[in-house]
Amino acid sequence: MSAVFNHAVRRFLQTSVQRAVPQIEGPSAVSGLHEGGYKIWKKISLFVALPSIILCGVNCYLQHLEHEKHPHEKHFIKYEYMTRREKRFPWGDGNHSLFHNPKTNPLPDGYEA
Is the pLDDT at 26 greater than 70, yes or no? Predict the structure, then answer.
């Protein structure tokens, strides 16, 4: 009885190991059928992606230049909840924020410029 059991266990382990280890038949991914797959991605990167990025950058720059030709005057509307100063800022005159831009950040009484 124990000889039959030992044979069954040995046969089970042999077949388990054979199933666990992949059998490579034919060309592998390292050499053979799929060799040189990086070349197509290199060509796509150089001839499609890079020119697309450059064209988008040029388009953004040209749109920015067009936008600068027509400056928009911002109209200041004094809302109480936006201009309330409970406490002065601890720097400068106490009325300007830390990264104050006179063209875009209004003071409580309006824009400086």
Answer: no
